[in-house]
Amino acid sequence: MKIAIIDYGAGNLNSVARGLAFVGTPGRITGDPAEIEAADALVLPGVGAFEACMRQVEPLKKVILERVDAGVPLLGICLGMQMFYEASEENGRHEGLKIVPGTVSRFAGGLKVPHMGWNSLSVEREHPLLKGIETGSYVYFVHSYRAEVSPCTVASADYGGAFTAIVSNDAGNAVGTQFHPEKSGPVGLRMLKNFAEMI
Amino acid sequence: MLQIRVIPCLLLQGDGLVKTVQFKDPKYVGDPINAVRIYNKKEVDELIFLDIMASRKKSLFGPKATGPRVDLIAKISDECFMPLAYGGGIKTVEQVRDILGTGVEKVIINTQAVEDPAFVRRAADIFGSQSIVVAIDARRRPDGKYEVYTHGGAKPCGLDPAAHARRMEEMGAGEIFINSVDRDGMMNGYDLELIKSVSSAVKVPVIACGGAGKIDDFAPAVKAGASAVAAGSFFVFHGKRRAVLINYPARAELGSVLD
């Protein structure tokens, strides 16, 4: 079993790699399209600004989308999850990977932004990623932009209103978390284990 | 519901952990890796490491500043399954990249943010505001006004903490860490006036630090506007005699005073 942690020059790769190793399914950090194509599962991490990350992912976009279409599990984390959407309004409007419909936009309404810290999940529908995880579990978020709740939402969280905490495509193989499972203690590590079991 | 973050703030001196009083008299309290392992078990919300040797021009404890020690930071980061922030001696974008590359979530910039505010903007543009924290060490002057200190609390720089915080927000800081030098290690409660003045000046989250001595000290800091509360002595000492004991209250106990 091979998990490729996609290295596109940004993102917090080491924490994700460490989390996967801890649950017994080590991943390989790689930016090589051939290795990504050969992997049994993909992880798309991400921190930073949307446009810069999309630009860096661009050369790998084709292979990622082909693998998702082929049913290979893909886990997007934080900005990696936001890249699933059609577009983001961070610093203008920039197109995403279009794995799920919708747009990512900034938190509004006098809130302290970034939304930073431990917030509780409301499970909206079943998904293998959530095996053994209940509504009310706390996970670690740090982000200034968010996607609204839609039919693709697997779990939501509340910060001045509900937003999407976990999103998935219709097939279920592409799943993204707005929070950082690799930094969310036992709950997050369980999700990484659940993800590895999706292979 | 978003929980109020409760954050142990640990001081590095050399390879060991120390705790200071008013930024002076560092007392050895243990090994950083051992502390992280205990905090992992206790499921702390987040950890902050500050290297007190890293930015002093002429160190109180040695001849010269060390700058960030990426090898030590990497060892600490390797053990952390909670969000981690590091501060101390950061002056370049390359240092920020190296530190974030070890798996640290946030870097904390203090002296360099005063000496070169545009550095904060450069770092935020590249790594995102969410990974850039500006720390402000402040003291109350005899006239009652607050003043920002740099170089590990050694050098007054004439800035007002609230005005400096607002400027740093404009530069792209995603979070402000406000520390009262006067209250450091005193365990007699946070400087609520300072917290209020800084958190009302910015829209980004503010972490309050300096003075926590008991669990009931946290709620007033939150009421004063803090989004998160940090403490040193409270999490490393136990009892009136200040015996060293790495500790962290159960979430339910924290919830009973904070939520």
Describe this structure in words.
Chain A has 199 residues and is α/β, with parallel strands linked by helices. Chain A has helices spanning 13-22, 33-38, 50-69, 79-82, 185-196, and strands at residues 3-6, 27-30, 41-44, 74-77, 87-88, 94-95, 103-106, 115-120, 122-123, 138-143, 145-147, 153-158, 162-168, 174-177. Chain A has a single domain, classed as Rossmann fold (3-Layer(aba) Sandwich), CATH 3.40.50.880. Chain A is built from 5 helices and 14 strands. Chain A has an 8-stranded mixed beta sheet. The termini of chain A are close together. By secondary structure, chain B is of the alpha/beta class. Chain B has one domain (5-258): Aldolase class I (TIM Barrel). Chain B is built from 10 helices and 14 strands. In chain B, strand 5 (84-87), helix 3 (93-101) and strand 6 form a beta-alpha-beta unit. In chain B, helix 6 (161-170) packs parallel to helix 7. Classes of the chains: A alpha/beta (199), B alpha/beta (259). At the A-B interface, helix 1, strand 8, strand 10 and helix 5 of A face helix 5 of B. Chain B: Pfam families: His_biosynth. Chain B: It catalyses: 5-[(5-phospho-1-deoxy-D-ribulos-1-ylimino)methylamino]-1-(5-phospho-beta-D-ribosyl)imidazole-4-carboxamide + L-glutamine = D-erythro-1-(imidazol-4-yl)glycerol 3-phosphate + 5-amino-1-(5-phospho-beta-D-ribosyl)imidazole-4-carboxamide + L-glutamate + H(+). Chain B: Belongs to the HisA/HisF family. Chain B: Its EC number is 4.3.2.10.
Give the tags.
heterodimer; A: 199 residues; alpha/beta; Rossmann fold; eight-stranded mixed β-sheet; four-stranded mixed β-sheet; 29% strand; globular; B: 259 residues; TIM Barrel; eight-stranded parallel barrel; two-stranded antiparallel ribbon; Aldolase_TIM (chain B); oxo-acid-lyase activity (chain B)
TL;DR of this structure?
The complex is a heterodimer of chains A (199) and B (259). Helix content of chain A is 26%, strand content 29%.
